Each structure stands twice: as C-alpha cells, then as structure tokens.
Amino acid sequence: MTATSGSPDLRGRIAAELVRTRERSALLTDVVDDGDLMRQHSTIMSPLVWDLAHIGNQEELWLVRDVGGREPVRRDIDDLYDAFKQPRRDRPRLPLLNPAEARAYVGTVRDKVLDLLDRVRFDERRLVADGFAFGMIVQHEQQHDETMLATHQLRQGPPVLAAPAPPEPAVRVAGEVLVPAGRFTMGTSTDPWALDNERPAHEVDLPAFAIDAAPVSNERYLAFVEGGGYDDPRWWTEAGWRHRCAAGLSAPMHWERDGTGWGCRRFGRYVPLRPDEPVVHVSYHEAEAFARWAGRRLPTEAEWEKAARWDPATGRSRRYPWGDQEPDAGRANLGQRHLAPAPVGAYPAGASALGVHQLIGDVWEWTSSTFGGYPGFAAFPYREYSQVFFGDGYRVLRGGSFGTDRSACRGTFRNWDLPIRRQIFSGFRCARDAAVDESA
Questions:
Q1: Cys-Cys link to 415, which of 103, 276, 309, 397 (CB 3.0-4.6 A)?
Q2: Buried b vs exposed e over 181-214: b needs ≥16 C-beta within 10 Å?
C-alpha cells in the first residue's frame, strides 16, 4: 500500500482490501452449518463463530470507536471477544453471539467503517497516517482467516473447502545457497502498513552462511522418519525430547501410513504424500531435530531475512525476495488460492536475488530465534500486539504459508508461536555456518 496519504486512490484501495478480506471470512464461515460454527474442533483453537465476532469487535474498537469517535455498537461483548481475557479452551462455554447474531454484528460494524472511510483524514495522527489503522485491521482479519483455515484442517466431517492444485515445478531446485558475510538492512521504517515488531530498520552484520535453496521436502523429511529420527534422543534437545515423548510424536501432524507408504489428511480428504512438496505441520522441536540429524541447523531470523531480501548487486534490502512488486500468482503461493504447499521449484519468478526459492508462501518457516523487539523497538499502537509475547517462550517463523494473505506477508513480516505448535502451516529450511565442512 503505497498510495499518497489521503488520496482517493488510497481510499479505494483500502475499501477493496476490506471487501476482499471479508469475502474470505464469509467463505470460511458460510461453508459449514451453525453447529460446526459453534463447535470447538480443538482445545487450542476457537470456535469459528468466536473468530468471526472477534474480527468485528477489533474492527469496532479500533476503527469505529478510536479512529471514528463513534458510539459503540456492542460494548457489552467486549470482554467476550478479548483474546487475553478468554483462553481458547474456555471460549465454547461463553455466552457467544450465535452465527446469525455474529454475522449481523460484523455487517453493522463494516457499514460504519465504510462510512467512516469516506470522511477520515489520513494525515491527522500516526494511527491513521497512510491508512495504517485500516491496514492493521485488514491484516488482523486475514490472520484470523488463516487461523480459521487451520481450524478447518482440524475439523472432522466431509470436505467443505476446495481449490485447484498448485502449479507443477518449473525448475529443479536442490542444494544450498552461499550467503556472503557482511551487513544488510533488517526490518523497515518506511513500509506504511508494517507492524511494530517489524520496526525499525537497522543494520545487521552476519558471518557467511549457507541456506537451503528450498524448504525441506516431504521426501527429505521422510528419510528422517524412516531412519528412526523420532526414536533417537541424540537429535533432540532435552525440551524437544520431553515433548516428543509426552505427545507421542512419530511423524508430522496429519501424516498417516498407507500400507507400505504414507499419505496425509488435508481438509477432510486423504491424499498420498507428494515427495516434492515442502513438509508442513511440524513443530519447532521436530524441525530442530531434523536439522541436527542432517548435520545442519535452523537459520536465525536475521539469516532468513538476508537470504530473502538482500540484493548483492545494489546492497539494498528488497520488500520481497523478487523485488518490491506485490505478490501475484506467478511468484508465490499465498491467500488460500491453493490448499497445499506448492512443489519445490514451482515459483522460479519468486526467487530471491541470491537464488533462494519459495521464501514467501507455501509454509511458515521456523527459525532458531526467540521473539523480541529490534533495537529501538516501540510498541504501537498497543503492547498486546507484540510486546507481551517477547521472551524465550516463542520462536519466530518467517515467510507465510499457502493460507497467509498477501496483506499479512512481506519480507519483514514476523510470526511467532510456541515451539510445540504444529497445527499451523509450518515447515522449515536448514542452514549451516559457511566454515563448516559439508561432509561433517
């Protein structure tokens, strides 16, 4: 979003993003009946109807009340849809809005927001400069849409979602890419819709390292599974091995044996395991164990971002691996366009300047970094978006997945989760110190 502040083009683009995003929310909630919407499909996920009304409540709080200064639509439900006050496991027992009430509520809020959009000045204060508050709400809704998509992956019952298959590989991608030592600019101070944890831009000096040219594939990960990787504590940290044993992990989430082979459950359908797809639904602990087994390690998030953004020809950091242009269907697998990661080599136009592929879309990629603020970090517009999660408990994921929307994914975007989580669309790639002998 780079239109001039306050211009009709900016208003039009914001309106289009709001409409496009709401269409996705409606798709994810209209394809199931009221019982499915009210049901909790996993204790670590909300009922879909909670996510829907929460989307509307956040839009009301930030745009209708704060930016617009309007009277509340439903002040009485604020506590019900406060994610910090209501743990996910407890949400089904709350007096939630039913599906009809939730749809009516989010519709009323959206009507008020579109009316506000016609009148607001984008240069009055930081919250609305360049449409930031509207962009924050678009990204928030899209993030919950991806969460709802993950809930759909966990629900039992006949399939309700469909999408065409991702494109076939266009090039062969294998091996690793050497990233030379040196400084690069990490983060951003200029992207108008970047969130607080992406800011500010700062220089980072890294030693040389090598990183996989593509995410780890099912074929590579299967070798770890069948080679006894889940049965050998040598490859796991103490915390990882403890969790592997307690949770009874033996393969990625949703994998199933099919006779002598493997398949997986994907949105209610059984599909054979495709060897050249990036592995998905693995926790940080599993990714770390594979990397150790392979004689590698997970990249830091600084290494990931340099491999994704740094252009050796100019020395600058791009917005996306391929440049500054917005993602499209030829560069990345984003936005629920497909319901699976694309095979390795499917998006050569999306490669970085260094020749690293599929850094945006397909699967979120675990990094070894814990989540924290950059030098000079300042919480904005509220601590609960990022700052309350800082610390050693969360690991950073980068790059987005096939379920991530383009509005909530760029080269600086940072996601985070607990290292045990694998219901998310998470995969990884490996790295190594450049000085380490490859045969080690």
A1: 397
A2: eeebbbbbeebbbbbbbbbbbeebebeebbbbbb
Q: Topology of 8-154 in CATH?
A: Four Helix Bundle (Hemerythrin (Met), subunit A) (1.20.120)
The CA distance from 268 to 112, in Å, is 37
- Six token digits for residue 73: 């639509």
Q: Under a CB-based contact definition with an 8 Å cutoff, are residues 53 and 105 in contact?
A: yes
Nearest to 230 by CA among 209, 205, 252, 199: 252
One-character DSSP codes across 69-101: -PPPS-GGGTTTT-TTTS-GGGGGGS-PPPHHH
This model's pTM is above 0.85: yes
The single-letter DSSP state of residue 321 is: T
Q: Tell me the C-alpha to C-alpha distance, in Å, between residue 433 and each of 46, 310, 428.
A: 41, 18, 17
Cβ contact 321:309 at 8 Å: yes
Write the pLDDT tens digit of every residue in 173-223: 999 999 999 999 999 999 999 999 999 999 999 999 999 999 999 999 999
| Residue-wise pLDDT tens digits, 77-107 | 999 999 999 999 999 999 999 999 999 999 9
- Structure confidence at residue 7 as a pLDDT band (50, 70, 90): low
Query: Do 219 and 230 form a contact (C-beta atoms < 8 A)?
Result: no
Closest listed residue to residue 277, CA positions, set 173, 352, 350: 173
Confidence of residue 260 (pLDDT cuts 50, 70, 90): confident
Burial of 64 (0-12, 13-18, 19+ CB in 10 A): buried
The pLDDT score that the predictor gives to residue 259 is 85
Residue 409 phi, psi (nearest 5): -155, 125
Banded pLDDT at 5 (limits 50, 70, 90): very low
Q: Residue 62's CB: how many other CB atoms inside 10 A? A: 20
Same fold, 8-154 and 163-440: no
297 and 336 Cβ atoms separated by less than 8 Å: no
Spell out the domain ranges in the chain: 8-154, 163-440
What is the pLDDT at residue 435? 73
Pick the CATH number of 163-440 from 3.60.10.10, 3.30.390.30, 3.40.50.300, 3.90.1580.10: 3.90.1580.10
Q: Is 183 helix (H, G, I), strand (E, B) or coil?
A: strand
The token pair at 237 is: 């940290």
Q: Is the pLDDT of residue 75 over 80?
A: yes
